[in-house]
């Protein structure tokens, strides 16, 4: 912090932090500075501190209908915020909560947002496959199945990343190791009759390197 006073500091899942962390945060949030064990002072006045927590997430996910499907989204958000606030008060001391400027409650991910996340992971996978001159495409059925097995309302999209790795990436790795996939292949991933199905075709306009070399020599 001495070298980079203009920073964003993230404490992920702050509820799991050691009590000593909260003692330090009390001084930072109140005075904008921190004094270490050697008496040195670190300035935090130009620092943005963000803390995340999963407190209340499971109660919201398993709560009564209305947190997600109420017609009045503002009312639904207020109910979620009240529930989270209740859980925060149970877990954190008042002197800590009073020093937090604002609390933002993120609603559960919608189906459209989950599809966007799958597309994002799919894009990253596609970029890695380009190093092998391969491309990949996931059907809507495959994406929806990945969401079904990989989304936990209480945990968000993190399990979704593991589902994509286990269901798609691991299978691709096996096929590459066994010589079932080659440069120039376009991999089509679908979900049919309860299982993921991988089919391949040659990329449009793909020319085998041997053919290019032979043509150049001619």
Automatic annotation (TrEMBL):
Q: Which GO biological process categories is it annotated with?
A: cellular response to heat
Q: Where is the Clp ATPase C-terminal domain?
A: 109-198
Q: Which UniProt keywords apply?
A: ATP-binding, Nucleotide-binding
Key word Glycoprotein present in the record? no
- The answer to keyword Zinc applying to this record is no
Q: Which Gene3D superfamilies match?
A: 1.10.8.60, P-loop containing nucleotide triphosphate hydrolases (3.40.50.300)
Provide one Gene Ontology cellular component.
Answer: cytoplasm
Protein name from the UniProt record: Clp ATPase C-terminal domain-containing protein
Give the superkingdom in one word: Bacteria
Q: Which SUPFAM superfamilies match?
A: P-loop containing nucleoside triphosphate hydrolases
InterPro entries, alphabetized? ATPase_AAA_core, Clp_ATPase_C, ClpA/B, ClpA_ClpB, P-loop_NTPase
Name the coiled-coil region(s).
none
Q: Name one GO molecular function term.
A: ATP binding
* Pfam families associated with the record: AAA_2, ClpB_D2-small
């Amino acid at each position: 912090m001495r070298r980079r006073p203009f920073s964003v500091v993230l404490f992920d899942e702050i509820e799991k932090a050691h009590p000593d962390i909260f003692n330090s945060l009390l001084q930072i949030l109140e005075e904008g500075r921190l004094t270490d064990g050697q008496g040195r002072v670190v300035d935090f006045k130009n620092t943005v501190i963000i803390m995340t927590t999963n407190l209340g997430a499971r109660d919201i996910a398993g709560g009564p209908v209305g947190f997600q499907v109420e017609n009045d989204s503002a009312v639904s958000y207020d109910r979620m915020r009240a529930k989270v606030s209740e859980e925060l008060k149970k877990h954190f001391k008042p002197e800590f909560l009073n020093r937090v400027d604002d609390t933002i409650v993120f609603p559960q991910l919608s189906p459209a947002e989950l599809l966007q996340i799958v597309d994002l992971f799919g894009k990253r996978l596609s970029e890695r496959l380009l190093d092998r001159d391969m491309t990949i495409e996931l059907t809507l059925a495959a994406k929806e199945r990945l969401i079904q097995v990989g989304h936990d309302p209480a945990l968000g999209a993190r399990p979704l990343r593991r589902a994509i790795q286990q269901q798609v990436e691991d299978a691709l790795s096996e096929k590459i190791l066994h010589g079932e996939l080659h440069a120039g292949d376009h991999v089509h991933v679908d979900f049919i009759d309860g299982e993921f199905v991988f089919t391949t075709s040659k990329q449009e306009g793909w020319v085998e390197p041997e053919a290019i070399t032979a043509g150049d020599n001619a």
